[in-house]
Amino acid sequence: MEVIKAVNLQKKFKETAALDGLDFSVERGEIFGLIGPDGGGKTTTMRILSGIMKPTGGSVTVLGRGLPEEAEGVKEHIGYMCQKFSLYTDLTVEENIRFFADIYRIEKKELQERLFPLLQMTRLAPFKDRLAGNLSGGMKQKLALICTLIHRPEILFLDEPTTGVDPVSRREFWEILQQIHADGVTIVVTTPYMDEAEQCSRIGLVFRGRIIALDSPRDMKRAFKGVVLESHPADIKSFSGIIASSSYIKDWQQLGSRFHIVVEDEAAAGDFMKKAGIDSLTQVIAASVEDVFVERIKTRQ
Fold first, then answer.
1. Which end of the chain has a smaller Cβ tally under 10 Å, C or N?
2. Range of the domain at 247
């Protein structure tokens, strides 16, 4: 069942088009990711979907209600977590949660039933009396998530929730999101991290206010046109020269002592490996979402 639908969504700030005809839909129970670099229109999209911002053109419906006209009727059914930590730093973890519970008019008995499971799920129970301002970056994001979940929304909007968070906290945060997803909550998340796309049911690759690819991560990678190689050359300088002069290579990236290389097809891969003369140190690997994103951008230029 479709719970979100955006058609030709547009948003202009003076002469700048933040959204330039965005089209996508989200099914109930999905983790839907909007993936792309900063400035692509992800945050603008989230603000429109949550009823905070009015679009310049196009249409959007959330839970069958048109926005922005029916925004007030939607807000009680959704949770929105913005990029910047916006809770009260001079209140404790528990005081912040109780404050949001009061906003949503949650009865004390009901709050008690919800509070402890959320603290346990996020591993914040031992820190419930700590001031929010004294929490680590990862803990702050978990607290913000609890406050967003306290009224049990049907749809959860998360705008770059793991930006600036350490790798361990990022992993823990996504483990929590998977638990929430298992309970039937629809999640829409934005992120600039291509590896987080693997956590989503479907993703939309966003570039310059448009979605340039829309599918599951698995099917998107299957449709990738090219062969990806990973090489660990003994002589990096010499290998760099081979890459620079090769006509087989579509794209490449040096990652420390290894190289990530994209060629046209298997024949080109074989020719390149033969020319490089280091067959034993080069192997074919699976394409990543980042490979797909780079390919789609280049085909548009």
1. C
2. 224-300
Q: What mean pLDDT is predicted for residues 41-65? A: 96
Q: What is the pTM of this model?
A: 0.91
**Average pLDDT, stretch 58-65?**
97
Torsion sign over Cα 35, 36, 41, 44: positive
Omega of the bond leading into 68 within 30 degrees of 0 (cis): yes
Confidence of residue 86 (pLDDT cuts 50, 70, 90): confident
Q: SS3 for 66?
A: strand
Same domain (yes/no): 40, 84 = yes
Residue 7 β-bridge partners:
59
Structure tokens at 110: 């009901």
Instruction: Pick the last residue of a domain from 171, 201, 220.
Output: 220
As separate numbers, helices (DSSP H) first and strands (DSSP E) second, the chain gives 10, 14
Q: Same structural domain for residues 147 and 126?
A: yes
Domain count, the chain: 2
The DSSP annotation for 12-29 comes to: EETTEEEEEEEEEEEETT
